[in-house]
Amino acid sequence: MQDLTPTSAVPGLRGAEAVFPAAEFETRIAALCRALPAGADALLLTGPENIFWATGRQTAGYFAFQALLVPASGAPHLLVRQLETTGAAANTWLENIHAYQDGEDPAAALAALVGRLGLKTLAVERQGWFVSPEMSARLETALGGVALVDGSGLAEGLRAVKSPAELDRIRLAAGHAEAGIRAALATCRAGADENEITAAMMAAAIRSGSEAMAMEPLVSSGPRCGIPHATWRRRVLAEGDGVFLELAGSHDRYHAALMRAAWVGEVPADVQQMQDCAERALDAALAAMAPGRPCSAAHDAAQAVIDAAGHTAAFRKRIGYSMGAAFAPDWGEGAILSLFTGVARPLEPGMVFHLPATLRRYGAFTVGASETVIVTETGIDVLSSLPRGITRC
């Protein structure tokens, strides 16, 4: 393993592509240090979202092992694959970037770094997307002389409430998502296929300013749109088809999502009735959101509307989930915070949620609408101006 600092890699590169000023990340690192369990010398982060949140580090190459060590005192240390060092220098303000070579065991490289830093007790994140059970075992073996304590959820707990800078990015991402959905709705018609609609959606979002999304858009039609999380597959739209459209725009890795439904031709009465119920449920959920109220309140309000209308079986999910910085495979922060029954954490200003109020006749159609909202000091700010009703094509 070799040491590499941004300035020695390419002069003047440090922070050249950072999404925020250094002070924003210094505040986050300080918060992580305060959150360390008693007795821990450092926090070990491996999840791409947490590393990005703490440092600004982003890449399409996060399939390769990476690790961030946040000591209780002193500057953080980032370990990445050698090929990733230039990007790590450009995206972050870090002074301590270390590289392992292709063919070198990253677990051994991390253990060597931990030993060099004299760390005896590590709080370890155990919920990272890209650390397999096999890699976890290798890390524990390599770190055999180091006490490992659970550091899961420390970064996620801090990420749930966004800073003003993060909220600015999420508002921009919401605009990109709305541009994409508007274009998709304008493309829906008999004879168009799902690929044409998706191409219009993604082109409009990208022209608006969106970067790579953490999950592909969801575009499906006819009976396929009654299948949750179906993606486009060249199907040609015909009279009487429903169309399901969902997209998250991305700006500086921060995401905001939006979902709408369309119908080719006359909307059947039973479909419209379910759509009306979904919109009422969404309205009820939004009305239940305010600082100090539990996350469960929004879900319970929506569920009550759905149950009263007799559509309980068409809605077997949570009403919403947290949004923020995201990497594939998920555009949301649903693993951090849900709007669901039993979630007692109070809403706080700066929290962001996507609320997809969808009702399904499985294998036939899906209707509904969604909004991404920011919790404010007095209530919520809805980030879309797009009408929620079914668009007739």
Structure description:
This protein has two domains: 158 residues, 3-Layer(aba) Sandwich (Creatine Amidinohydrolase, Chain A, domain 1); 229 residues, Creatine Amidinohydrolase (Alpha-Beta Complex). The longest helix is centred in the middle third of the chain and has 24 residues. The model has no long low-confidence stretch (mean pLDDT 96). By secondary structure, the chain is of the alpha+beta class. The strands form three sheets. The protein has a seven-stranded mixed beta sheet with strand order 1-5-4-3-2-6-7, sandwiched between helices. It has a five-stranded antiparallel beta sheet with strand order 12-11-13-14-15. The chain is built from eleven helices and 16 strands.
List keywords for this structure.
Creatine Amidinohydrolase, Chain A, domain 1; 7-stranded mixed β-sheet; 21% strand; 2 domains; Creatine Amidinohydrolase; 5-stranded antiparallel β-sheet; 11 helices; alpha+beta
